[in-house]
Amino acid sequence: MERSLFGFIIRYSKRDQLLIVPLVLASMVFYFLSLDLPKTIINQAIQGKSFPDPGSTAPFLKIHFALPGFLGGGVLALFDGIEMQRLPYLLVLTIVLLVLIVINGVLKFQINTMKGWMGERMLRRLRYVLFDHILRFPLPRFRRVKAAEMATMIKDEVEPLGGFIGEAFITPLFLGTQALTALFFIIFQHLALGMVALGIVLLQAFIIPAMRRRLLVLSKQRQLDARLLAGRIAECVDGIVEIHSNDTSNYERAEFSARLGKLFRIRFELYQRKFLIKFWNNFLSQVTPFLFYSIGGYLVIVGKLDIGALVAVIAAYKDLPTPVKELIDWDQQRLDVQIKYNQVLEQFSAEDLTPAEVQAMMDTPALPTQGTLRAANLSLTDESGAKLVDGVSFEAGLAEHVAIVGAQGCGGGELAQLLARLVYPTSGTIEVGGIDMTRAPEAVTGRAIAYVGSPAYMFPVSVRENLLYGLKHRVIKERTYEDDEALRERAFHVREARRTGTPEIDIDSDWIDYAAAGVPGAQEMETRIVEVLQVVDLQETIFELGLRSAVASERSADLGASVLRARRALHAELDSLGIGEWVERFDAARYNRNATLAENLLFGTPVGRKFDIDNLAKNDYVRRVLVETGLIEDLLKTGHKLAETMVELFSGLPAGHEFFERYSFIRHEDLPHVEEILGRVRESGLAGIGEDDRNDLLGLPFKLIQARHRLGLMDEAFEARVVEARRYFAAHLPAQLIGAIEFFDPERYNSASSLQDNMLFGRIVAGQAGAATRIGALLRKVLDELGLRPQVVKIGLDYQVGVGGARLAVADRQKIAMARAIIRRPAVLIVDQAVAVLDSASQLRVTTNVLEHRKDRCVIWFLNRIDLAERFGQVIVLERGRLAERGSFVELKSGGGALKKLLSAG
Amino acid sequence: MSLEQEVELIRQFPIFSKLQPAMQKLLCFGSERMTYAPGQPLFQAGDVADAAYIVIEGTAEVSVPTPGGPVVINTMGRNAIIGEIAIFGGVPRTANVTAVTRLEALKISKDLFFNVIRENPDAAIELIRILAERLANTTSQLSRTITRPR
């Protein structure tokens, strides 16, 4: 990257800048003319100097130049003009003025747009370059950078740069010529007045920047502190568990407050200075008209200046302070963004940046397929000079399984990262199948070698996307566009991408390298995914995710029908086993005691937030239904009784007691409020309480599940009335609420409910021992019989894993990472303690499965459990970065060396 | 049977009788009321001990696995409390408990039980007394089983 901002601007936007210059110059001509014309209008047309008699005419558009003496003097007459009378003359002149103003406006519009475009293009280029740098930073550097700070720099801090780049040359040119034109015009009218204006301008140009010097220092400080603040917030978010578990939230609050205080202090001073400067600026620009009116007025009175010229001077001067002020602003902005640019640059400069060629996109580089992996004299030294890996040499066939073992701090993880070429060795070489991996581009290392670390990162997309992530090295099939609109859009994108030095590769193309996964296309990929899921012991988890997902039936036309078939089959199965009543089915004519009161009333699944269970009592339509069916009084009584029970049960418990979370209908902090309501009910009865109290009580019982909570608050009559209200609710649902709920219908698929709920079409009854397990097994059986399992798995694969995979269990994340690595069939699979978080049985299962799956393909596994080393052909034992011994497990075990020691220690 | 009746039931147990009425009610409210079919296990030896059970209706058999097959060591009926020892030991179940008839029981989860005992020292002392008694019983039962001529 260029060391200076202006270097960067000139290098990449010279052409664009030059294109604008003619427009700026043209606009100045029109500007000058528009300044000059009012003089003619006042002097000639209004005051009538050219019209001594009512009937006389004056020439319009007379173009005569007074030739200077050295050209022989005299007048050069280009055009003698059209003779006109006074009124038409005035009219024509004013229209010309209007036209000039409009032309000037159009030119300005054009200049501004081009400036904006140019700035945005440069911003795009700059952001891309910075992001590219992040992708090319060596891994150790990421220990020192904070993600949030990087993000603020690329997103926010360079933003003003884009704005400035548009202004960098054009603004001084535009404003400078404008100011000069105005000044020249004033001087041309009257020298003394011109000198006054010039004096004031010079004063402005010296005083204001001097006052602003401190502002720059402050804004630089503010930028640094704001960046640190962003980093600090991210730190707290990342360390939130530590904050809670150590009770340091108040320490963090104080720390944050101190930072805010510092920022405020800077801003405080900034504002004070900024407005002081503004005051001076305004004062200086407004003192000039005073001088003009007094001096100019005097000159007019004594007849040394005509009134038209004075008006024109004043008009011209009105335009003078603004460009001067803006020029000063520009200058400050220049200093400001230069500081910003240098600061950002400082953060992004790195001597050991991976060369761009290493990451170049390659179609089909030569990949190692057979031979051996040869590590020779590998060493890695950290920043402090400590040797993490020290002269390790070994050889393994590309069909061999190698275990790396060692005690804490043995350097196994570092060796694994070296072999995966994630870090470059300080010395030594790695060769795989005859290719030197230390020098190979990422197109080779990233396809021949797969690395699974711990914890592995999940991108916040679906499970499927995460699994296929390792196959997106390059565009496999370019996307084609049919209609003109899309073609134009694409052409625009390509053009702009080229202009800004950013890649024009179409992200919407097909990037998935099916061949690398060993399948011909997308169809077969599904089978391959399922196969891989089985290897990492994840198929059941994904299947369950599918069952718990709600899928819009539009997405696959026959899904709804299939699920309905499964529903019927499941019910038949339950009935035939005599456990039909284990699921209390939804029946439009009956109250479901295993469902919540809300579900019973709505008799459907809410879509969106309109009929959210927490705000049901406040929903206008629900209120109308409750009132018109008379249910509202029952509900109020129930709410009251429920409130009494909750207060009785929970008021003795301390705040934060886990029972609140688990069992209470009322949060601890709301208890006093509810007690107050109960007090008011005791005083004035249920009918006498206010609207707010009523709302609060009405909202309570909606989560009540009769069979589970066993509070005996609802009798059969009440239940019958709820069923009545349910009918009313459905019958009178206003048109605009129709999309807000999907009703339960035994003959219809409910796209707002999960697949599982769709199949059950009811609720598993409370208190039936083993019901959930048994029904779960039956559900699977039914799906298997109907051949629907692949479809459910497919839906499970669409499950969104959340930020960093947070919606998945840690163990599942590791399994997905493992699947992501093996799906692309790398020549070498490197595993860096990646299954350590799994429970002991799963570790064994996954390790065995992966080794079986990669029979005859190379695996290098840094093990956390030494006993598993038995399953590998070769064992490498490390001791403090050095290779202590290597050989087969049996050999080393009986040898009495390092492995023996490790085994007896562990 | 509603919550009120369950409260009446647990009140008869010495461990719970010393609790505040509100706490007794809370204990029932937080518990699950489970139904078991004849032959259905409540839990088996080796399971994680995650709950205690109070029999409301029906009978259950307690057996221990031996090399020669399970040996029934006890039968529990209405108003018996089952499995409360193991949840305090933090060890897996040592015996099988199986419903003999249709069985209804109040299942008190370990967390709930712990929390209630923690809030009430009197109940804790009562629990210790019961455990001591139970230990003495089991010991004498065991010695009778061993010394009995085959």
Mean pLDDT of chain A: 87
Q: Cα-atom Rg of chain B, whole angstroms?
A: 16 Å
Low-confidence stretches of chain B are none
Widest beta sheet: strand line-up of chain B: 1-8-3-6
- CA radius of gyration of chain A is 40 Å
Approximate helicity band of chain A: 55-70%
Strand content of chain B: 25-35%
Tally of extended strands of chain B?
Answer: 8
Q: Count of helices of chain A?
A: 32
List its salient traits.
heterodimer; A: 906 residues; alpha/beta; six-stranded mixed β-sheet; four-stranded antiparallel β-sheet; B: 150 residues; 6 helices; 26% strand
Brief characterization of the structure:
The complex is a heterodimer of chains A (906) and B (150). Chain A has a six-stranded mixed sheet with strand order 10-15-16-7-17-18, with helices on both faces. Chain A has a four-stranded antiparallel sheet with strand order 6-5-8-9, covered by helices on one side. Chain A is 57% helix and 10% strand.
Describe the structure.
The complex is a heterodimer of chains A (906) and B (150). The mean pLDDT of chain A is 87. In chain A, helix 30 (840-853) links the parallel strand 15 (828-832) and strand 16 (858-862). In chain A, helix 5 runs antiparallel to helix 10, helix 20 (631-650) packs across helix 22 and helix 31 (889-895) packs across helix 32 (898-905). Chain A is built from 32 helices and 18 strands. Chain A has 906 residues and is an alpha/beta fold. Chain B is α+β, with helices and mostly antiparallel strands and 150 residues long. In chain B, 44% of the residues lie in helices and 26% in strands. Chain B has a four-stranded antiparallel sheet with strand order 1-8-3-6. In chain B, strands 2-7-4-5 form a four-stranded antiparallel sheet, with no helix packed on it. In chain B, strand 4 (60-64) and strand 5 (71-76) form a beta hairpin. Chain B is globular, with a radius of gyration of 16 Å. Chain A binds chain B through residues 648-653, 657-659, 662-663, 708-712, 766-770, and chain B through 1-4, 6, 20, 22-23, 25-26, 28-30, 32-37, 40, 42, 111-112, 115, 119.
